Amino acid sequence: MPVRTTPVERAVDALRRLPIGDLAARDHVRTVRSTLAIANDDELLRFLRLLDRLDVDPPRVERDLERARTSDPVERRVALAHLRRALEPARDAVLRHLAAPPGDLRMVVDLRAALMALMAKRADAADLRPLDDDLRTFLASRLDLGLLELRRLTWADSAALLERLARSEAVHAVRGWFDLKDRLDDDRRVYAFFHPALPGTPLVFTEVALTDDIPASIRAILNKDAPRVDPASARCATFYSISNCEPGLTGIPFGNALIKHAVEQLRGELPRLRTFATLSPLPGFAAWVRSLGDRVAPEVRSALAIPAWHRNAAACATLREPLLRLAARYLLAAKREDDAPRDAVARFHLANGALIERIDWLADPAQRGIEQSFGVMVNYRYALDRYPANQLAYATNHAIDAASAVKALALADPTVLDKAQPVVSRRAALLAAIRGVASRAKRMVARAPAGA
Question: Is 349 a catalytic residue?
Answer without folding.
Answer: yes
